[in-house]
Write a structure and sequence with these properties.
This protein has 492 residues and is α/β, with parallel strands linked by helices. It contains 16 helices and 15 strands. It is globular. It binds NADP nicotinamide-adenine-dinucleotide phosphate.
Amino acid sequence: MPTNPDPGQPHTADLVVFGGTGDLSMRKLIPALYHTDRDGRLSPETRVIAMSRGGLTDADFRGKVDAEVRDQVPIDDPELWRRFLGRLHHVSVDVGGEDRSGWKALAELLAGHEDRDRVYYLASPPRTFGPFCRELQEAGLVTPRSRVVLEKPLGHDLVSAQGINDEVGAIFDERQIFRIDHYLGKETVQNLLVLRFANAFLEPIWNSLWIDHVQITAAETVGTPGRRGYYDHAGALRDMVQNHLLQLLTLTAMEPPARNDRESIRDEKVKVLQALRPITGGEVDRFTVRGQYVAADGMPGYLDEPASTPTTEASRRVETFTAIRAEIKNWRWAGVPFYLRTGKRMPYRRSEIVVQFKDVPHSIFPGGSPNRLVLRLQPEDGIELHIMAKEPGAGEISLKPVPMALSFGKTFTTRVPEAYERLLTDVLAGNPTLFMRRDEVEAAWRWIDPILAAWKADPALPEPYPAGSTGPAAAHELLGRSGRTWHDGEDA
Ligand SMILES: NC(=O)c1ccc[n+]([C@@H]2O[C@H](COP(=O)([O-])OP(=O)(O)OC[C@H]3O[C@@H](n4cnc5c(N)ncnc54)[C@H](OP(=O)(O)O)[C@@H]3O)[C@@H](O)[C@H]2O)c1
């Protein structure tokens, strides 16, 4: 990847957002780009070119962004907002369609700027990824300074992921391909690396001698209103575990990398995925749980949610909740379960990694409990170490777990950026460290596929759980069998 001629300054780029009028773009990408601009991290000449079939002029698109994004971002300087809108363009194109005029218009807009970084951001349905890359190449728009950004989902199983990777890989080198997992842009995730590898005290105890187990949870309160057409064919395992939760697992479990460079961290992450013990055949029942929410407390069940598609067998069989007991077969982690859990319509919205330490080898006080490190990604980024402390008082010593808490929002005066800001800044700078490499994505699918196959072969439906609850009973038994419990409750 060519380097910035002046490393002190942001790169000048043409950022082409394919699907630039869609939900992701209007809710996440455009606001993130505005914040990046406001923080002085976009070069003055950088342009954002949205593409869709919408037939919009530049002025129409700027008007749309003004109407839809203005309320999502702080506009303290109207001149800066006006300048930001001036960066925006729109080109109409129908990928796969006969009409070539859109590609011609894009080529004209980009002509004369071949020396700029070109970022093609595919914020469109995955079926368009391959055709879009081919049409870009046919239009002569892939330069040595081009990169392509792929949004999730990257396939629905290993074979389809390989298909997308092959199609995109036929046009772009792996070093030009940036696969987004927005969880990797979150402050706590990067802080996990800093906590582990910029502090000496954790490393000696970050292993099976001192850690009892790890829990990784992504709980949502929302259901799937209006999204059933998509969700019926996705489900919690594909939608959350294959990407986000496994990424968090790799960062928690990886060995210290030799360098903080584009490949070293990803090399270590992929080794973790390759060391995951496969869960296959009859074991799937023992080590995985799937559930689907049903109506409770005035909330609809999955099958009752408003939907534009009719209820089918796929709707009845899809999991809105899953919990998995994963194991990493290596020296550091042998015997330490990693429990993964995600669900819709849970009682709280929270994404976190909980590292549960073992109890003291010999306790001289009654009532103690083991230490716990909580890395929270949502709703607020922060880190808490729960330690045992003595309750003040002159009588018998009484213990209480007390959190030593680091809230980024409260500790640092600088604004905590949204995940997409960090990731877009990295794409524009050509830094792929926080993006998934092909071998990572495929190793993740290789582990997920046998679970999907066993669920498909099982005539049983997902276990029902009441909307607003912490999931089906089997999820609690998954830990209960070994005397463990999930980290739940508002002050947990
Ligand atoms: N929304 C999110 O929060 C989110 C989060 C993570 C990942 N994603 C992923 O990001 C992608 C986009 O999601 P979204 O929610 O933004 O979808 P969306 O609202 O349906 O937007 C899709 C965009 O793609 C354009 N498009 C679709 N087919 C096209 C074609 N043949 N030619 C040209 N343009 C086309 C649409 O414009 P026209 O219809 O006007 O052409 C629109 O701009 C999906 O892969 C999704 O899985 C979304």
